[in-house]
Amino acid sequence: MIDRRLLNNFDWSTLLVAVVLSLIGVLTIYSATRPVLDAVQKTFYIRQLYWIALSMVAFFIMVSIDYKWYVRFAYPIFLFGVVLLIIVLVAGKRGMGAQRWINLGFLSFQPSEFFKLLFIIAMSRYLSQIEHSEKLGLRYMAKMGIYFVIIPTFLILRQPDLGTALIVLFIFITMIVTAGARKKILLITLLVAIISLPFAGKIIWGGLKDYQKNRIIAFIDPQVDPQGVGYHINQSKISIGSGGFLGKGYMKGTQGPYRFLPENHTDFIFSIFAEEWGFAGSTALFIMYLFIILRGLDTARKARDREGCFLVLGVTFMFSFYFFINVGMTLGLMPVVGVPLPLMSYGGTALLSNFLALSIIANVRMRRFALYY
Q: Where are the domains of the chain?
């Protein structure tokens, strides 16, 4: 049973903002998939509502359990996540040129979405066990790289899921930096990375699928093939730019319903929103995302212990990367790597993992005074 004092410290504002963003996502999904060219309205928005309800239930279940228990069993659940990634490669469901889902018959889910949270929990336990006064040296970083990064990243790239692999790598780098990695080690690592970039780049490029190579080419020069590899980026820019300051109005956008913009309810949902609500609506949307990010940083600062601090930092970094990469994709500032917009893009597994991530922030925040009870 939850202590009433914990309920008094519950972070209702973060949950409210998350629910509002999710409902905005449902409205945008409905508008993007409305039957202008098709005879029947697709049911994506209804499915998303079901996932919001399920995510809310999961959120409160996760919050009711002290995060100390997650940290205590961090390594077993991390290994469980790696096993799921292996199962995906062996018996996963294929779709759109990738093998990323496990089909249970009544439900399909994407393990890599949940793995990021398991990765953060395992990293938090490992970093919290290092003495506070001790800097992260080469020995610690090598262990973390081998145990937590190399194997799962390889498995994720084999699906292939370049976006998630990059997110895992970014989380790892930011967490070790904030944990106090030695500047000398970071500098040496950076120099080695720069020197080996031409060789590593050739190997990585050879391992990419054709559509992934095309996305990178389109990022470098969208006009090299405006009807082919550069089409997505060009149409996204047109959608955002046509919104102007106040937008065309809800249900009055054209790029999504007329299918000029592919993946309009997933990767490019922000383009649809910006077309209908313009610069003013996009600014309001950014403020809500900024609120969640700042709330996470504030919670990490006020956490009662190092485990809670690292947990919240990892989740906040993950949320931030997803937001900036997705918006950057739609603006042509980053390659299209299939990263959804948190809480808004269609996708049940991604939405559920977003709410589970936010439950960690709420969990740590509501228990920040637990030592004084």
A: 4-182+210-372
